[in-house]
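User: Batch of two.

Assistant: Item 1 of 2:
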Amino acid sequence: MALSSRLGPFLRAQFCSSGSIGFRMSSWSPSLLNNMNSRHLGANDPMPSINPEVYTVFNMRFCPYAQRTVLFLLAKQIPFENINIDLKNKPGWFLAINPLGKVPTLVKGSTVIYESLICDDFLEEEHPETKRLLGDSPVERAMDKLLVERSKFFYGPLHGLLKVQTQEDLEKVKSQVQGGLQILGNELRSRGTSFFGGFSPGMVDYSIWPWFERFNGFAQLSNMDLKDSTLKEWMNRMFEDEAVRYYRIEDKDHAEFWRGFAQGQQNYDIMFEKENPTKL
């Protein structure tokens, strides 16, 4: 399908930076040109054809780091294609593209970039004509990047929930997670805006969101709640964002994946199997 046919303009209200309500024409439509839930390719799969005219994201559907870059591409309306990779059985041709074998890996022509935040910085600088997701001033950009670093106090311990062996260890990790959430909640309250990026999601929002999308899935495994009301309201607003809504995985599917991950039996193709039950 031609990209032009995928873009249907519609009218929506938007809060302007002045706080007033304005109207503008918005043409948001998924800029992904193929299927995000395709089968994950492994060592025995041949290399698929790659279109040198658009970005290709080498991805793993349940990877929170790769999700950062996918959300950037979707939010900025940059056309791209998606190739999912089996990270336990990586194809040799993928390792030839990125010897570290990490996702996301962003490719266009001879350009190969990896590490999610580096990919996102590149997209912001390479495409100034698209929606800006970083702050206007060097200070704002630096403070936002520092906040993303501090968000590790939240999502770092979150993964620890998969490894705890005792109730005492579980409570310790849950306390660390709540401490990280408090840092983020306090920062959002101090900014006094709907999102960390202002009146619409920005770099910080999209960079930390993947772990909030997974929070309820982790909570199902550990009986943990999100206590911060400011972050709860922010999550509800994020769920209404077009890019977030388009790429979202449901809580039960996240829980299924991470339950398998904790046992060393992760199924990368949960979403593919849901879409293609006759191919099992």
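Item 2 of 2:
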Amino acid sequence: PPSLPMIVYGFITEESVIALFLAGIGPGIFLIGLFILFSIIYAHFFGGYTPSAPASWQERRRSMIKVAPTIGLASLILGGIYTGVFTPTEAAAVGFALALILTVGILRSLSFANFKKAVFEAMITTAAILIIIAGAKIFGKAITLYRIPQEISMAIQMLIDSKAMFIFVVCIVLIAMGLVFETLSMVLIMVPVLLPAAMNMGIDPIWFGIFMVIMVECALITPPVGLNLYVIQSVSGAPLGDVAKGVLPFLALMLFTVFVMYVWPDLALYIPFKL
């Protein structure tokens, strides 16, 4: 966190973004643990890697001093969001102001040319996101006017009589959409259509939001044409086949996390509602 898909999901559904952030902690820690465990096992038994030389205490201290301002800034922003001191929108302004003070006034690592470039790139990204959101709101109003979510919800209830089957079908649909759509487009298009059906089946909207975010990310790394595979391939320079093969264990672990969330919903819901 702060996860942009969660913010967009909260904007569409009018659910608490803070609750979504809190709900993401449990599955996030679970995924981190699975990824670390798999990486250790793979490196030890299959990768043929040798351990790197341990860093000296002087190197560790130097590294900690270097990353301390960034960690402190992130902790302050996320802590402020989770404790309710400021909203996610206010957190963006606070984060920008503090980052500017840090990079210009303290670290002196940001030149005016780089600052101007960052502002310009942020402006383009923000404009693109707002255009997508505006289109999604129009799409949402249109499908509501024609009662499409209600019709789909009724059709799903007639054809699918269990939560497990509904979740399975949604997984297949989202993975298929990952072939041609990116993250925000999938969230903006599918949430207004699927959420009414999910709620009619008794699925918690906060839980469904975390499920959607994980599945959308799964869709983007699903071989053979998940969009993020091409991003990884362009950065690493590795053949696309190697990238697709390498991502499969992590995709399986993400799908396993979705299964654990379904069997044990408190993995996502315990922190925001019971802690």
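The longest helix spans residues 112-145.
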